[in-house]
Amino acid sequence: MELHVVIEGTRGLADQVYRQLRDAIRAGRLATGQQLPPSRLLAEQLGVSRKTVAQAYAKLTLDRLVVTQVGAGTFVAARLPTASRPLAQEELAGRAVARQWQGVETPLRHPVPEARLRYEFIAGGSSRRLFPEAEWRRCALHALRRTAALRGFYAEPEGLLELRDAVARHIGFSRGLDCRPDELVITSGAQQALDLIARVLIEPGSVVAMEEPGYPLARMLLEAQRAQVVPIPVDAEGIRVDRIPDGTRLIYTTPAHQFPLGMTMSLARRRVLLDRARELGAIIVEDDYDSEFRYEGHAVEPLRTLDRWGLVAYIGTFSKTLSPELRIGYAIAPPALRSALVNAKHLSDWHTPTLLQWTLARFMADGHLLKHVRRCHEVFTQRRAHLLARLSGDLSPWLQPLPAIAGYHLAVMLRRPLSALQLCQLARRVEVGLYPLDDCYRVPPPEQGLLMGFGAIEVEDVDPALDRVRGILEQLTG
To answer: Does the pTM of the predicted model rise above 0.85?
Structure first.
């Protein structure tokens, strides 16, 4: 392979060769120890005299960029430490914005494998042993065959038609939603779905109403878009619609299983919310993140099924039903927003990885997802019952679980004047992962309670973990 050197004109030939070789060495395109062509061969390739190349090599040798080994040739020398340094943040023109992002907290982040505790009550996590490895592997092989025929081109931003069709069928069966594939946009998790909606609706200062307490990552994402996020309190029926202010442009809510407290929004409250959104001309983001796991009563129809005006953007995810690592979600876009969301998705990341899309489409079409959800439901039912028995039994002097009929986490309030953060810190010392509700509150002071997930802890580990928690509570209260 010829060395890439370009000669222009007839003046300064040796200097042209020198500068191009020097820059290639400094940029790393010519690596340490790599042999340069003999001067005679390079001269013939460039159409210059051998003396021209020899002069360039001699100058590179003086600069200690190359070394000559008698009888062997000329080689790129080991790189010397550079005196330059990376630009400090204080020197950046955009340092103020960088500092803001540097200071952003990241609540609910799952620990890396080496930092995970023996007993984890983290919300949103699930047991690895529940994942259907064999079925997923077969579907992934099918996906590899499908992508082989299409490789070399980007896919459509809204997602593969096969996956959108499978998702529409699934949510029609499991949630009673009448949805066409052309209404869906496949996203990299529900978080991206919310981000895209915010991008096409929010301007700096736009008023966004959000449940208080609520999902902290949604609140922080909206604030990052420079929205004015107004916390709206919740009661036993859900978000207090009478507190949503005039001028609100977006309303974020989790009606099926309020995050984090767990109540289900009543049918009457849903209708009042839709009327208020219609009055404001506001879009409602209905985040239905884990309602497929329901343990009591009858399922309440999604807010979107009551929507007659095209106000509800329904978002969902497969992070809870399958695995958080997949990062596949979806949005049912209101008619007025769909083309805008597709364009925003295109600009954001073009499309969600097609290999994952093909795999999930086949997984759903073969009926594996419904089987997996039923299996998880049985396991989660056992864990939930075991956890509730302890919380309502020997732990009841200290802890009070709030009613929740769906999902796989519980909000647990402290009955005594204790600090939830202190309790969580002490629990970590005995290998128990507990997490406070503090981050879910925008308005201080937060209610003292815990966000206890039961998706990642095995049923046989619940008692040993809670025994350790009880020991801590006994010590704290004498």
So the answer is: no
